[in-house]
Amino acid sequence: MKVRAWIRGEVSTGLPKYSVVFVFLALGVLIFVLRHMTILEFQHKVNPPLNATIIVQRVSTVPDTHHSFCTFQPLSTEDAQEERLLLDSITWPETPVLPDPLSLEKTTDPAHSKFVILPPQRGGGQWHVGDQLEVMINMYDFKGHPKKSGGDVLLARLHNPKLVAGVAGHVVDHLNGSYSAVFTLLWEGSAQVQVTLVHPSEAVTILHRLTSEQPDRVHFKSLFRSGSHSETMMCNICLRPNQRPLCDFTDIRTGEPWFCYKPKKLSCDARIVHYMGGFKKRLKAKEEKLFQSGVNMKIYIRASGPDRVTVWPKKKGQTQVQNSSVDSGLSGYYYQGLWRALDGTRVHQFNLSTITQCLKGKAVHLYGDSTIRQFFEYFNAVLPDLKEFNLHSRRQIGPFQALDYANNILVTYRCHGPPIRFSGVPVSELRYIANELDGLKGGTDTVVVIGIWSHFSTFPMEVYIRRLQSIRRAVVRLLDRAPGTLVVIRTANLKASGIYESLTNSDWYSLQRDKVLRAMFSGLNVRVLDAWEMTLAHYLPHSLHPKPPIIKNMIGVMLSYVCPQKGR
User: What does pTM read for this prediction?
Assistant: First the structure.
């Protein structure tokens, strides 16, 4: 009774009757502050500044409300908290509600938008190697009016075509229609600024809505067959309920969900082949206007004034990379077409003989999507003594295995488990990366490279987070039993943009997953291969499958992890 009376303010405490209200308010404020301190501490750890990434203040947004037909297994308290913090860390600025039908007039127009290079902060009006170059970007709509909100997806690059040099910029969203891009000056000579609008903020609104409302817009099928009878059924992680019973193919060990509608006459055990079924483009009237190549998608923004500067040699006593209020977080840059790391890695150039010498006595296991398959194809093409076994696998799918018997080099590739947008994959070859890692002995003679991102773009972020949690647990187990194992995590990369690519595999989707991927493996004894920066900083056009010069540089970075050398 005393507790209830105290809550009502009826117990005499020597304090004013309504002081209890202020006590509760103070407690509420304290809880709020502590919670947000925890989130900010987590974000500082897992969400360091990424180059060419929109870095924004935390903005309250409505969380994903994807339909209940996406089935998720219960998480442990720790994993659930991590999932919530990761989702909080990638919130995007809210954009105005789109009119229906859509009009482009008030949406971001790259043709009207401009950027300007700000004067150097140092005296003398000159830029030197190691300085920071800052660019102010102002966005306008199709009527030439300044935008008042943030959320546009921008990329920034500094380059010199003659030197075949390039470095990514760090983009900051000021949430009022203006942005900053900050570059570290790393070479002498000319340095040209390039700012690209990937998507207007209004397009991000659509992409977010599609994932929330239509997580099954990329759909899959499976062939079920017994004897002469066969049936093809729809499958997915997010499978809309109907009157038909489901086959539950959730993986027993990892808990990864996968479902198919049950065939009419066959059992669930009769499933033999996995396919990508197709893509349903479900846009509202005129929303395609926000995804127009040459108009408002992957378009350069022009400079108001000069778009380049001259960089002089670094001043006496000046460090190579000047400290600044904005931590660049750069992993590297290109110079004369070669990648130079800034994360402490000494990247060396490998020829055929040095690749063989580096990999001698080692097994290299490649797991993931087609961007990891490129690594297998590279080794298989350049190493003359590496002979591929004929496993009668389709070239897109794998699995693949190649052996240099004389030098005891083994290279394997296996695609990750569903969702995988390959067609004609035998169900027996659908393997989850975590399970494959658990089957490795590991050790100093073992190299593992993992790249998994592209096929998860259309699904709720929870699907990707849980897949990475599963893989991370397996990586931890591998490193516990075999600490000498080298594990390399390949990040997402930029790619060409058409309307299909944007609705299924937009760079914005990749950017969000890239942040989560880096956060999930932060603090582990793994190496990160920064494909995002390596594709952004390069002069070649963006492509889902980076061109050979970029792949060669990626392989050089990977081999530098495998065989570190003391000198340059």
Answer: 0.87
